[in-house]
Amino acid sequence: MRVTLPILACVLCAGIILVTDSNKDGFLVGNAVAQWLPPSLWAGITNLGSVYGTFCLIATMVAWRPRWAATLLLTVPFGSLYTFGIKKWVAMPRPAAICAPETFHVIDATLLEHSFPSGHTLTAFVAAGTVVFCSRRRLAWLALSVAMLVAFSRIAVGAHWPLDLLAGAAGGWATAAIGCALSARWRFWENVHGQRALAGIALVCVPIFFFEDTQYPRGAWMQHLLCVTCLLGAFYALWRPAVSRTPDTRAEPQ
Prior knowledge:
It contains 11 helices and no strands. It is mainly α and 254 residues long. The N and C termini lie close together (6 Å).
């Protein structure tokens, strides 16, 4: 139920949007509401949903929750296949290609093509699902809240339709379930060498993300913050790799 119920909820919401033909209206309303907050905030939140940004966030906890980073890595092929496969097949135009410029607000990059599904939303919900499936319940609502905020930021910056977000959330949740099941079987993250390898991968990702052009320069503050926290977390994991793994011993999600 933890896997299927959220996916069914996304499908139901998508069905309502399609029946009521409210995809464009939902975007315009959400985009307008988002302008109550500064653009740099939304740009930073949307950078949090980039692939390297999300991994840097999760890898910050590699010394204490190595399974999170391991699960995230194991989801990469499945998430990439889902996102880029559908984007190439559907080729849905983005809001900036359809809506008049004066009707909505764009933050930084003006994107025109390959809207469906939202890759940032998928990545955020992969991370949220990883936390939900691989740790204790008290963290679930925090992880889901951050993922939903990242998803909404894609409307706030003028990059995605509501349907894109729902497809990304459903795909990300399913992908996280697959990754969690794999990390329950391949438990390399439990030994010292596996933990050091994960910390080493995190250290490689830091400079890549630091210099990456995310297309949202007003959100560079989030890039720098995540790089610093990931760097500290990775170095700490290398310094003290052997810790208790009892919070991360859940089996695959039901």
